Amino acid sequence: MSNPSxxxxxxxxxxxxxxxxxxxGPLASVMLLDLGAEVIKVEPPGGDGFRSFGHGQQGWSALxxxxxxxxxxxVLDLKAEDDxxxxxQLIAEADVLMENWRPRVASSLxxxxxxxxxxxxxxxxxxxxxxxxTGPLSAAxxxxxxxQGRTGMVDLLADSGAPEVAPxxxxxxxxxxxxxxxxxxxxxxxxxxxxxxHVSLPMLDVMTYFNxxxxxxxxxxxxxxxxxRPTPSPVVRTSDGHIVVTPVSGAQISRTLKALERPDIKExxxxxxxxxxxxxxxxxxxxxxxxxxxxxxxxxxxxSFDLPVAPVxxxxxxxxxxxxxxxxxxxxxxxxxxxxRAVRYPATFDGAQLVPQGPAPRPGEHAAEIRSALGAR
Length: 377
Prior knowledge:
By secondary structure, the chain is an alpha/beta fold.
């Protein structure tokens, strides 16, 4: 299996100017960079404030480094005339401009949609916002946890106790994925029309779209007034830990009970007409049995019956998972803060893996070469 250079990746030749912070825009551009695009990160004076966020090493934030690896950096004060002119030069030669400023910030900087479109009619412009450019919340701050709260996700997690946000940045990562998808669609559209477009991507809209199919089953049909009932947890305790058991068909449930040698439970389930009650009863019954033996015992038994089960793997153990190693998901990059573990792009193209290409930049590290390249054209 080959590891292609940037020149042989699908987005080779695509130039992206990214002026965004936090996780959504930067992670989206890393996805496109892994696919072969060139990304120039435009940072404010002093560098992106997110550089120091969260856990880090030798002054390098792990989160920032993972979501900005492989990019080139230039520091521009967009309120200064000369730097604004440089930004416009970058825009003139770019295929994509990515930003997550609050609405009206672009216009206040002299980079409104009419301006950038006039500079480069073929430019794809992505604006990530919290709630959109208009409406009662258009000027409100928007972060991952706030969107979780407003879209019902926190309420859903309250099924197991007090309301809580997910312990990882699911909203920002999902929005980043949709951002990359939308940019690819806009680039394809440009191939047909010859013109760029403005892609507006509110976080609220993304998570509503993402959450609806399963979270809102009881509101999919407009006249449905059913009270939502929590889905039973598939995590079941064993004598020395936990496993995840997720039979989704009648045949899988039947084989699970056959493995447990408990036909009486099958008869009990068949006498229940309500699907949620069936699931509740199933997990209650196997929850009485599985604590009698070890995780290893149950995994081996259920796997011998071709049942969908998995261990509850600790974060550290995931790194050494045999399938993870076989898939060559993690790669090492040399950085100023030491060796960096980075994840390759998940898709392969004709069997070729797209491995991470380089470290995250220092603030303005590539300013001279970027300016020189602009002056040479």
